[in-house]
Amino acid sequence: MKFGIVFFPTVGPADKPAPEYFDEALRLVDLAEELGYDHVKMVEHYFFPYGGYSPDPTTFLAAAAGRTKRIRLGTSATIPAFQHPVKLAGKLAMLDNISGGRLDAAFGRAFLPDEFKAFGIPMDESKDRFVEGTEAIKRLWSEENVVFEGRFHQFGPVTLLPRPVQQPHPPVFVTTARSAESCAEAGRNGHHLQTVPNVMSTEELQSRLAVYRAEWAASGREPGTERIHFSYPCVVAHDGDAARAKGRLDDDRNTAAIAAAVASWETTRSEAYPGYERLVAATKQSHFDSKMEQKKLLIGAPDQVRAQLEQIADWFGDDISVSLSVHSGHLSFKDAETTMRLMAEDVIPKLKGGRV
Fold it and tell me: Which pTM was predicted?
């Protein structure tokens, strides 16, 4: 098991000014580098406190690259539907160069109706735009004189500069939340996988991972070379009750943020997102205690979190990477720092196969 940190801000100006949030986040990047964590990632979202402080993860990761020498830098994920592939491929290739070849490029479809509306993109096109955009970016990274004739973008011949440091291109991850077919396609296409266990049952996630791993192997790739990243909210303190109180506060605020962001699903329907209208009701039924029971949050004293991770490894395998969401913005910088130090010093070293 490898461990890193992921930034998913769920605050707005009324909670914490953006310069303060970014200053704290970059100081935590420094700490992650010092403590030997494997990766740092940031999401892409717009407008709402739910991720709205991170409209361009490449900007944040470029700042992180300038402060670090070793840690991997991941988008978690960037959205091809909202940018021209030549532009996005160029930005990510530039980041790969600035960081000396440390980019992990994750792509996602997005799922918030208000974001699609703002960009003037029909939601029903999201999957086709995702597939086309990802294909175009990979070709721009790995080929010269690219001529591309897609449904949404036509260009060429184009030779992208700068060329990525990592050849034939940086590792490509696909972010998926619910779709079994998306997991299967990721395996067939040789894409690595990242997901959030919070959005499905343990059994559903086990089934999706089995499909993904089977398709990876069936495509002729060596089993075990696939990379799987899970994201978990994480609060660790010396006192388990104190950690649980802080974790409950953070989870309540995060749930309120996502409830506001998904509210438009109450009046939105899309064939590309079957069942997503149920997100509104799901946020109202989201409860901290049930998430803790289902091991969907990593919260407690070091020995408690270690037990949670051992159960997760039993369920999903000890070859996964865990991205710790340590700083949504509602708890203090000190709380996040304590979590990261306790994980690196008291939790991970005592796990079988665990390493930062």
Answer: 0.94
